Amino acid sequence: MEVDEVVCLPRLSRVAVCGGTHGNELSGVYLVRELLKAEKKVRKKEEEEEEPLSVQMVLSNPRAMQQCRRYIDTDLNRCFTHATLNGSTSDSDPYEIIRSRELNAMLGPKGSPKAVDLVCDLHNTTANMGLCLIAYSDCDWICLHIFRHLQRQMPDIPMRYIHFDVSSKESYSLDSVGKHGFAMEIGPQPHGVVRSNIYTAMKVGVQHVLDWVHFFNSGTIFEGGFVDVFTMVKHIDYPRDSETRNITAAIHPQLQDRDFCLLHPEDALFQTFSGETLRYKGNEPLYPFFVNECAYYEKGIALSLARKRHVMIPAIRVQTEQEQQANEQGFASEEEE
């Protein structure tokens, strides 16, 4: 691809902003509630626009929110794989399985032309990660340009783009239902607590996302460039007792709160409850993130490790009406064949 080549992409007509996928991650819960209160003003503004943008606000897991719990029966944000969404249904299905299929019907179906154009799913982490966008693609130019826009508009907030290299069928989180999607993960914030600085960063971030969509739809050309992408390599669990499976160590003080600070072989990793230092035995330096995330104890994850890459993204602009019609005719011809 030529560096100065402009990639033309379809208009983003429908956007979903989701909060409360985890019912105790409160920044997203309270922000979406506020956005729902303001929805009448938003609708009036949309009606005044020639080509309105539909922004749908969704409270994803209302039962878990009511109880201020991560989930009721099972983690909703692991329920959006192709197999789960399309599996046989039963009256005994866990609540979150039922809810994932409702959300898929509302925002999808996943992988179909009817799916919303962009899903922004709001999350908090107890880890010291700043503001991260987490996505399944390192070549989704929409998500990467949104990230680059946020970096420029919010220079005082530490910001990273995390890539989970998972296929579309195996992608498991709510944001995967949209044609484009990402989780906006902001921390540190304890679960069940809302901190004004974290809430405000999320609120400002979401507004910049929506602003970017308006700019894109109005024909703005976004220049190409480079973005640092952190591709997840592996998870590391805590040391555990072989019989009880209880953890026997905590994150080492030298690593705690140092998300995205390069971890070298032989650096301190854990400190056992008897005081011994356990060191990182990997073969290469990698970047830790989700360090000591509260919700991941049950998942057997003490931290995740990523490799940083410099990814070139092309210049992009919205397709013209004629280009979009030509594309649609091309798709129709392919289907007839």
UniProtKB/TrEMBL annotation:
Membrane topology reported for the UniProt record: Peripheral membrane protein
Keyword Hydrolase assigned: yes
Cofactor(s) needed by this chain: Zn(2+)
Catalytic machinery residues: 185 (proton donor/acceptor)
UniProt keywords, alphabetically: Cell membrane, Cytoplasm, Hydrolase, Membrane, Metal-binding, Zinc
A single GO cellular-component term on record: cytosol
EC class (word): hydrolase
Compartments, as annotated in UniProt: Apical cell membrane; Cytoplasm
Pfam families linked to this entry: AstE_AspA_cat, AstE_AspA_hybrid
PANTHER family with a match to the protein in the record: ASPARTOACYLASE, N-ACYL-AROMATIC-L-AMINO ACID AMIDOHYDROLASE (CARBOXYLATE-FORMING)
Name of the protein in question: N-acyl-aromatic-L-amino acid amidohydrolase
Organism: Seriola lalandi dorsalis
Upper taxonomic lineage: Eukaryota, Metazoa, Chordata, Craniata, Vertebrata
